């Protein structure tokens, strides 16, 4: 059987290089994820940096190497195109891959820098029936999937308060025009996507931010109060000028609580208090662990092949990526208007 021919555009950190980090769970890159699934074969790569390109070729045994992605798309008859370049390039490259006949496109987050570009690529891929997967990778992580199952099964009752933090160091003086946004945009896109994954659609946001270098430069911190359509309230924060990185979601329901993030996961359920007569309190109980864990990059590659073969939607689709982008850009816009509430329209 012919294998799915995979080509990678952008042989940088998330495309391939992070595999060299001895501390990370593997695989942890696009190339590593697709190498791990049998029906796929990495055949080609493209980067404008020749050193990175040849390093990619050596590592994955790909002989077809290009400095121009359009040339690669024209020459290689690729089934799956991975896009791991800088964010402002994603939309153009998704369009080029879709128009060149790719059967599936695996694109880094954030989906695009501008909402109109994100809408255009989601529409184009839907019209052409090409699965567009956005690498909000925790959607393929079995721990996060288990947490969502618990919520959907009512284990913590009705979700009432959802808090998400992606706390990180002080960013430099980087122009928005080049970088699209700061911590709320880059790490916050994972967080926003998960708030939507756990809490459902968001109705409005009220944003706040600090921009020590002025409006033309990325934020140091952005945060927002959000209201979910189901009535739950939320708080989201990206940045925060910390010495550490902490990515965490705290989902508090009417009968329990789930904490999940880079530091692990915990489940709390309501129990009769042993300390106060007539009270109930939360007690930590074992989080139901999945039997076999594989890194989400393998899950993403498997999901891509499943979508191509079945025509079913992805667990992390272009539409999901678009919704996250809409929320983030609304947070920035609301913050610029002193926190005025802005309605969210689900990406469209
Ligand atoms: N999912 C995640 O957890 C995660 C982690 C890191 C980065 N990212 C995202 O991945 C993307 C890349 O980030 P990175 O940290 O790997 O950056 P990087 O700079 O390490 O890699 C990007 C690569 O793209 C190449 N490139 C730039 N323009 C190109 C072009 N026209 N044609 C071909 N190659 C080109 C660069 O030379 C570079 O090697 C960003 O959108 C970022 O937000 C996601």
Notable traits:
single chain, 348 residues, alpha/beta, Rossmann fold, Dihydrodipicolinate Reductase, domain 2, 2 domains, 9-stranded mixed β-sheet, 6-stranded parallel β-sheet, 11 helices, 15 strands, binds nicotinamide-adenine-dinucleotide
Task: Describe it.
By secondary structure, the chain is an alpha/beta fold. It has 2 domains: 4-138 and 297-315, 3-Layer(aba) Sandwich (Rossmann fold), CATH 3.40.50.720; 142-293 and 323-343, Dihydrodipicolinate Reductase, domain 2. The chain is built from 11 helices and 15 strands. It has a 9-stranded mixed β-sheet. Strands 3-2-1-4-5-6 form a 6-stranded parallel β-sheet, with helices on both faces. Helix 4 packs parallel to helix 5 (115-127), helix 5 packs antiparallel against helix 11 and helix 9 crosses helix 11 (318-336). The mean pLDDT is 97. The structure holds nicotinamide-adenine-dinucleotide.
Short description:
With about 350 residues, this protein is α/β, with parallel strands linked by helices. The chain has helices at about 30-35, 50-60, 70-75, 85-100, 115-125, 140-150, 175-180, 185, 190-200, 295-310, 320-335; strands at about 5-10, 40-45, 65, 80-85, 105, 130-135, 160-165, 200-210, 220-230, 235-240, 245-255, 255-260, 265-270, 280-285, 340-345.
């Amino acid at each position: 059987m012919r294998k799915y021919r995979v080509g990678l555009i952008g042989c940088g950190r998330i495309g391939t290089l992070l595999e060299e980090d001895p501390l990370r769970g593997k695989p942890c890159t696009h190339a590593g994820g697709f190498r791990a699934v049998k029906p796929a074969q990495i055949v080609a790569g493209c980067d404008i940096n020749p050193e990175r390109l040849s390093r990619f070729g050596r590592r994955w045994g790909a002989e077809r190497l290009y400095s121009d992605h359009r040339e690669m798309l024209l020459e290689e008859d690729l089934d799956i195109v991975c896009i791991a370049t800088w964010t402002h390039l994603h939309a153009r490259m998704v369009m080029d891959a879709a128009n060149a006949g790719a059967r599936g496109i695996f694109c880094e987050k954030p989906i695009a820098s501008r909402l109109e570009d994100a809408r255009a690529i989601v529409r184009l891929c839907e019209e052409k029936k090409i699965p567009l997967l956005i690498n909000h990778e925790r959607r393929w992580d079995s721990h996060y999937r288990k947490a969502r199952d618990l919520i959907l099964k009512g284990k913590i009752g009705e979700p009432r308060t959802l808090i998400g933090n992606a706390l990180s160091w002080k960013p430099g003086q980087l122009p928005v025009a080049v970088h699209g946004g700061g911590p709320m945009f880059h790490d916050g896109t994972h967080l926003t996507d998960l708030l939507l994954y756990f809490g459902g659609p968001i109705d409005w946001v009220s944003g706040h931010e600090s921009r020590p270098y002025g409006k033309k430069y990325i934020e140091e911190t952005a945060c927002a109060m959000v209201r979910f359509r189901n009535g739950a309230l939320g708080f989201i924060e990206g940045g925060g000028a910390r010495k550490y990185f902490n990515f965490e979601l705290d989902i508090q329901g009417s009968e329990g609580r789930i904490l999940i993030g880079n530091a692990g996961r915990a489940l709390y359920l309501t129990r009769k208090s042993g300390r106060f007569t007539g009270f109930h309190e939360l007690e930590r109980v074992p989080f139901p662990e999945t039997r076999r864990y594989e890194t989400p990059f393998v899950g993403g590659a498997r999901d891509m092949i499943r979508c191509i073969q079945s025509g079913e939607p992805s667990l992390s689709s272009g539409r999901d990526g678009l919704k996250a982008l809409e929320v983030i850009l609304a947070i920035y816009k609301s913050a610029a208007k002193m926190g005025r509430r802005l309605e969210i329209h689900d990406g469209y």
